[in-house]
Amino acid sequence: MDLTILKEDLKTAISGFGSVDKENYLKAIQRMDALSKDTSLPKQLQHYLSRRSYHKAQDFLGASDF
């Protein structure tokens, strides 16, 4: 898993549909949905992604050494 891509995807999702290209927004959401099923992720991060709690996922990554 590339954390740089995940962090960018989180920024895209948090910025909202109207502020970015529709295709990029949808691809970011799709990548994070797929990643939410990755059992190698920390359980808390997996939970945030599966619930689409993107702010919490971003905070988790910022506070974690993951």
Question: Please, could you describe this protein's structure?
Answer:
- It is a single chain.
- 68% of the residues lie in helices and 0% in strands.
- With 66 residues, it is mainly alpha-helical.
- It has one domain.
- Helix 1 packs antiparallel against helix 4 and helix 3 runs antiparallel to helix 4.
- The relative contact order is 0.18.
User: What is the succession of H and E elements?
Assistant: HHHH
Number of domains: 1
Helix % is 55-70%
Biggest beta sheet attributes: none
Report the end-to-end length measured between terminal Cα atoms. 11 Å
Percentage beta strand: under 5%
What is the number of helical segments per DSSP (H or I, 4+ residues)?
4
Overall 3D form: globular
What is the number of strand segments? 0
| Global mean pLDDT | 92
Radius of gyration: 11 Å
Low-confidence stretches: none
State the secondary-structure class. mainly alpha
